[in-house]
Amino acid sequence: MIYTLALVGFGTVSQGLAGLLVDKADVLAQQHGATFRVTTIATRSRGTLHDPAGLDLSVALQAAQTGSLDAYPGDCLKRWDGVQAIRRSGAQVVVENTPTNLDDAEPAMTHFKTALEGGQHVITANKGPIALAYKALEQLAQKHHVHLLFEGTVLSGTPILSLARCGLGGCHISQIKGILNGTTNYILSQMEEGMGYDEALERAQALGFAEADPSADVDGWDALAKVVILANVLMGANLSVGDVEREGIAGITAADVARAKAENRRWKLIGSARRDGETIKASVQPTLIPLDDPLAGVGAAMNALTFCTDVLQSVTIRGVGAGGPQTGFAVLSDLLELHRRLS
Amino acid sequence: MIYTLALVGFGTVSQGLAGLLVDKADVLAQQHGATFRVTTIATRSRGTLHDPAGLDLSVALQAAQTGSLDAYPGDCLKRWDGVQAIRRSGAQVVVENTPTNLDDAEPAMTHFKTALEGGQHVITANKGPIALAYKALEQLAQKHHVHLLFEGTVLSGTPILSLARCGLGGCHISQIKGILNGTTNYILSQMEEGMGYDEALERAQALGFAEADPSADVDGWDALAKVVILANVLMGANLSVGDVEREGIAGITAADVARAKAENRRWKLIGSARRDGETIKASVQPTLIPLDDPLAGVGAAMNALTFCTDVLQSVTIRGVGAGGPQTGFAVLSDLLELHRRLS
Fold this sequence. Notes:
Two copies of one chain form a homodimer.
Chain A: E1 2-8, H1 12-23, H2 25-32, E2 35-42, E3 48-50, H3 57-65, E4 77-78, H4 82-89, E5 93-96, H5 108-117, E6 121-124, H6 127-143, E7 148-149, H7 161-167, E8 173-179, H8 182-192, H9 197-206, H10 215-218, H11 221-234, E9 245-246, H12 254-262, E10 265-276, E11 279-290, E12 302-309, E13 314-320, H13 324-342
Parallel strand pairs in A: 1-2, 1-5, 5-6, 6-7, 9-11
Antiparallel strand pairs in A: 2-3, 3-4, 8-10, 8-12, 10-11, 12-13
Helix pairs in contact in A: 1-13, 4-5, 5-6, 6-11, 8-9
């Protein structure tokens, strides 16, 4: 089967996906019977490319390196914004990867609604709309008989949502807890090696793990968005961002870390959602973890998640939690899930 | 949708499944739209029950406790053997859970062929037929347009095969390595606490982890069968049992364990399959693991598996690797996968 795709947003995630679609085209066709043809690439400030016959992704990736898509040959460059690109692309699948915005999720929210109302499937790694309005968007998708998939919103390509959907279906999940943010885990791991908080943060920034304004990571906002998504999608909760107790890692001192180490424990920023009677209690907070907990050994910028279930007890999965190709893979994984559902 | 099931073999796994089908009937119907009706339960020495209207599993479980199925009310008790039960049950799905036999996989192999050739889906936790003849059986299933599912053959209910199928589809797997046998991991963990090999083995036997004849576990045969299954199913290998290098844990001494501990390493019985050019090299052997390896922290009778991939680097999943309800859950998970494929 051939699927036409519009990529809305062409940053690291969509570029990671584009690279995979080039590299893995043969495998996808031969092993999965699926061909993904990108007809549209829309950016906010670098122009929009459109070719109904399919864009050459290698050329588009090169053009993107120049800071504009002007370099793409032919007359493919359009003056469309995101909404126009979604409407005029005619693509079956809209891959929305504009930057995450946890205030009102725009412009992604408008992109999602435009696509779903137009009968287009939506695949995304953008946490904003899913954290703020999962239920409404899922209902909109169902109303228009299309699919909304978002594996890349948590732990990048490490498959959490599909694991819960396929492998844990039929289990009752009583708690989800995990290391959901690689930057803070890197900082805490460095502090355990003897570094101070400021130095560890600077190093994370130098390595590109942390932004110049590190608040989204160190204050726990990124992990919080993921907790809301996990609780609402996998545990049937109905949480808003404001319902989650939140504490970042900035208050953790070198002395705290040393004391924990002497007690055979480790500080980790743990995102958790657990059932408490009929409600779901959710939090993001620095937590002392004993060394024999599966989350204790998760160092550097790795992520991990433990599902506490009725039948299987604890199941823990760990893997990379960020990166353009890895998050691009999450989108590819969702494209293959869509293909399974439609074929 | 309603599915009729014949359970062939009614030991701990099928009893675990039966318990889950009783406990979760409402959830399965309401959340998944699936009703599983067991019409036949065949045992080798305790008789065969059959009721086309569906057996009462709670009563059958109680009857099984008496050592025979005579106690089941009505005239449901038949003199059918496994093959007759498969043919005469008329069930859509045959759940085959007779004991694993790695020599010729009988009687399961005959049960599998009978069911597949008769157009019945087969779900199993029995490693024998899958380790010895996966490709031939998969071809037979395809020829007869039915499905062959076997999540319970590796890591019981901890979802490995579905993780690879759903979450890692599109990844290139270069190596699979893991702790695939809980008994040996328990013994090695106890030795690390200071126990000798013989004492640790006795304790595992007292706890029911190890059989009176512990050879299948401590000599690596159980892990070996799982390596063959993982390599052939997930990496496209064509390995026989004899192709896998095998060494058990009986040669590991308390001194070896103490020396490793002093070097911040741990002995683990590692099953591995890795690509080496065009071939797959597979082994089961005691291996020294550094403490920062995700497999190092896997203690007691837990299991874990690491997938080494091209895009996602390493993904490790850990969970329970044995137990009646847990392995029964693997069968339930496959029933839900079958339901997804057919609906």
